[in-house]
Amino acid sequence: MTKPLEFWFEFASTYSYPAAMQIEAACVARGVTLVWRPFLLGPVFGAQGMTDSPFNLYPIKGAYMWRDMARICAAAELPLQKPSTFPRGSMLAARICAANAGADWIGDFVRAVYSANFAEDLDIGAPEVIGPVLQALGQDAAALVEQAGTPETKQALRALTDDAIARGIFGAPSFTVGDELFWGHDRMTMALDEAAAGN
Questions:
Q1: CATH (domain of 59)
Q2: What is the C-alpha separation between 135 and 127, in angstroms, rounded?
Q3: Residue 109's CB: how many other CB atoms inside 10 A?
Q4: Which of 29, 71, 148, 197 is deepest in the core (most CB within 10 A)?
Q5: Residue 57: its pLDDT value, please?
Q6: What's the Cα-to-Cα distance from 59 to each of 63, 77, 82, 86, rounded to whole Å?
Q7: Residues 19 and 173: beta-carbon distance below 8 Å
Q8: What's the number of domains the chain is made of?
Q9: Three-state SS for 159?
Q10: Residue 162, domain extent
Q11: 193 contacts: CB under 8 Å, gap ≥ 6
């Protein structure tokens, strides 16, 4: 019997982009239940004593990451445009996802937001960007943007971020299968194998 795969992602995270674009189809192909787990990297990095993305704190690492991303996206036939702001604020999209993680449209929403950020260089923190994404999915954009500002939704995202830290998650993307943690886009297949085996 398979186990659910929890996909922990941050909309500003570079390596989460190719993972997010591929994970749902990969889970379907393996008969694995996918659980979307949005969270914020800021508090995670803060708990590790960092005030910015490690790719900004260590420019050599950042330069490598963008070249690596170009290779990964080319292999996956995904467009890539380096965001003019990095990391880009993603609170609005993350809150919408946290409040609606079980909705049947959330996978399409996640992929559209990642495309907006990493393929179109759009400000995914702005309602002017997120609203049309929701409308294109047939959703009530005004209601969902309003919902994102409620105390309940803010707490839902905060709880997910706290849960990520409690589970020992230190970066994105991460995958959990039960108590097993897999970090990084290149560990997605390993996580899928674990979930499919039901260990």
A1: 3.40.30.10
A2: 12
A3: 22
A4: 148
A5: 80
A6: 6, 26, 15, 13
A7: yes
A8: 1
A9: helix
A10: 5-197
A11: none
| Contact of 183 with 44, CB cutoff 8 Å | no
> Under a CB-based contact definition with an 8 Å cutoff, are residues 7 and 175 in contact?
yes
Look at residue 191 in the predicted model and tell me its pLDDT: 97
Q: What is the pLDDT of residue 199?
A: 63
Query: Can you give the pLDDT at residue 48?
Result: 75
Mean pLDDT by 10 residues, the chain (199 residues): 95 97 97 96 77 80 95 97 93 96 96 98 96 97 97 97 94 96 95 90
CA atoms within 13 A on the CB side of 57: 8
**Euclidean distance between CA atoms 188 and 194, whole angstroms:** 10
**Would you say 124 and 58 are in contact if contact means Cβ atoms under 8 Å apart?**
no
